[in-house]
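Worked Example 4.2. Read the sequence first, then its structure tokens.
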Amino acid sequence: MARSELPVTGQVLPERADAARNRRRILDATARLIAEQGPEAVTMNAVAHAAGMGVGTVYRRFGDVSRLLLAVLDDGEQRFQEAFMTGPPPLGPGAPPADRLRAFLHVVADRIIEQGEIMRAAESASPGARYQSGAYLAMHTHVSVLMREMRPESDPTVLAHLLLAPFVPSLFTHLTVGCGLTGDQVKAGIDSLLGFS
């Protein structure tokens, strides 16, 4: 599959210089708020105040808190997409589909554990927003392609949704904080569930 077929997050239409500056100011202000007070402190009003601009500008640019938090995660997401689309195997092309899927799901698990606080805030702000985000669409497309190669007789679109369903911040918080599991234990569980050796 050509790289251009995947909906890469972060790809935006060319924008005016002032719009680009406003976007950067909003994202930087949001990142500062998260670093200083945690993601629960992120509101559209708080971000507007921290960025020194009107709240209407923040709403026009991002729409809601969930989209704003997802945008903060975007830089890391772009690097992740580069790795699974064009990077070295087993995550990138060149490895068997099962090996690529295992590597992919392990990295997704690591990312949720590392960025869980922001992801949980985005999930809570708008639970359904995940499925419309560029990040989810790219992951779903990638997993669908791998499932089509692994199980051509199945419906890869449905399987991809079902495989990605447990990869939500609330479950990972429950497993790592509530149950005290390490990231390696979570990934061993993924391997066992999916029959990876």
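Now turn to a second chain, presented in exactly the same format:
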Amino acid sequence: MLPPLNALRAFDAAARFESASRAAEALHVTHGAVSRQIRQLEETLGTQLFERVGRGLRLTQAGHELATATRHHLGGLARVCSELTRRDARAPFVLSCPGSFLARWCIPRLGALKQSLPELELHLTASDEADTLRPGIDGVLRFQMPPFKETERQETRVLGKERIGPVLRPDTAWLPNETPPSPAVLLDLPLLHTRSRSQAWPDWCARQSLPSDQLHYAQGFEHLNYLLEATLVGLGVGIAPDYLVEEDLRSKRLIAPWGFVETQACLTLTLPEAGRARGRHPYADALSAWLAQELAAAPHAGQ
């Protein structure tokens, strides 16, 4: 007969932390409750599971054997319960996307999404990590270059092509009076850049037949969102995908005199493969279709 589940959970936590106090914090119970559960478990099994070392705990040989089993089986139970929860349409859809895309494209459209899919509860999380699904994430939205990484456990859908272009404040005194201004003007202007898209300016210049080795790089930033904020306060000329500056262009906070050019990158949505044990959220297909529709309907300056 199996020991009580609460006793096994208390033991598992104490084994991981080698401390009854830290186990109690993790389980949100008292130190005394963890100690009692472990003592009862030892009495039930008829063997000692821990050695008391100062204020900590050390697993005995029997404890090591039990810890290996509880870690495997309790972890499996947690994963299955999480997967079953995600099959419920009432569970939140957790979407991971870059912080810049979250702030500048997703958030302004949450109202429209609620109108289109009123039953969907969307949780957005910012991440600039690789496009792999992690436990607790139902979908990953990313700009990435083909070929896209496909596995037997996930599917990657192309939602739209990436288009990039230079943007700057409309009240700048840098631009000549000619309309439209020649792209060569940029060779004399302070260009803002970011590590996350180090090839953005050289790629754009190559499409304009401009020598990228003559560009004047000004301030650099870790993330694209910071670059766009610097562009908005007039520190220089930024470069970004048109999806991220739609609202700024519409409100005339920024202008894009040279338009946008299509790159090889795409905006993709990575989902768990349908029919796998992990499961796919019931609203995954509906959200994917809505995202693709919104992206296709967006105005693309310079196209």
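Notes for the reader: The first helix runs from residue 5 to 17. The CA atoms of residues 93 and 122 lie 5 Å apart.
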